[in-house]
Amino acid sequence: MNTVEKTKKLSLGRVFVYLFLSLAALFSMFPFYWMFVMATRPSSAYNSIPPIITPGSLLVENFKKVLNQIDFFHSMWNSFVVCAVVTVVVLFISSLAGFAFAKFQFRGKKFFFTAILLTMIIPPQLGLIPQYFLISKAGLLDTLPGVMMLFFLNPLGIFLMRQYISEAVPDELMEAAKLDGCSNFRIYRKIVLPIILPAFATLGIIVFTAVWGEFLWQFTVLRDPEHYTIQVALAQLSNTRNVDFGMIMSGVFWATVPLLVIFLLFNRLFISSITEGSVK
């Protein structure tokens, strides 16, 4: 009897957990769904009461308006180049720095690691003026490299890699590799990299989505429409007296699709990096 009661309690507990997770997923997905609905409706539907929650038939027409206003696909390509380059550089720098902080002893290690973490609490807006001054002096204003350079050093990435490598890469494995004559960089390339691929996927998704959605720095640096990223280009859609919300939502919707594709491609590694903490 006690066993039956415990089983019932466990079943009810699971039902409540699944119900809560389902509701949380619906609430999380609703803004994206509402954006899609507005992308298929005329601008007047944006302020309608009660709100419209069913899709319309103007998705293609609204997107044609976007194409008439901005060079959408070229801006998308610029954003993809910026995000791809930044992601690769961040993964390389963060994994190397995380490897050093996790597995090596050197003077000032705690100080430097603490200093890197402290930069995470500084609002990025505070550094906008000195960063703009440095990029201007380097002659990189209104260029994609000028946009990229600000994101190459990622304190969160260094922290995540340091934590993952310290747990996933055993010291015994490194000692065995050193006895076989491996250099530190070869250990990183042959041993560490294959182990931390799930962490790479997690950090890569975080960095790619963060840079893709960043607006303030890109808007500050870029002036030539030829160099616009998709976020800066979409901002030009509202620079009119009569704002077409259907057109804007259509542009935002299609600009969000690449992020969904990136996540679907790497979601298995993303999930495995959360659930795994050991060496295969």
UniProtKB/TrEMBL annotation:
Q: Which UniProt keywords apply?
A: Cell membrane, Membrane, Transmembrane, Transmembrane helix, Transport
Q: Which domain of life is it from?
A: Bacteria
Q: How does the record classify its membrane topology?
A: Multi-pass membrane protein
Task: Please give the chief subcellular localization of this protein.
Answer: membrane
ABC transmembrane type-1 domain location is 76-266
Gene3D superfamilies per record: MetI-like
Q: Pfam families, per this entry?
A: BPD_transp_1
Report the transmembrane regions from the record. Answer: 12-36, 76-99, 111-134, 146-165, 191-212, 245-266
Localization per Swiss-Prot or TrEMBL: Cell membrane
Q: Do you know which PANTHER family this protein is assigned to?
A: ABC TRANSPORTER PERMEASE PROTEIN MG189-RELATED-RELATED, SN-GLYCEROL-3-PHOSPHATE TRANSPORT SYSTEM PERMEASE PROTEIN UGPE
The UniProt similarity line reads: Belongs to the binding-protein-dependent transport system permease family.
| Name used for this protein in its record | Carbohydrate ABC transporter permease
Q: Give the organism, scientific name.
A: Neobacillus paridis
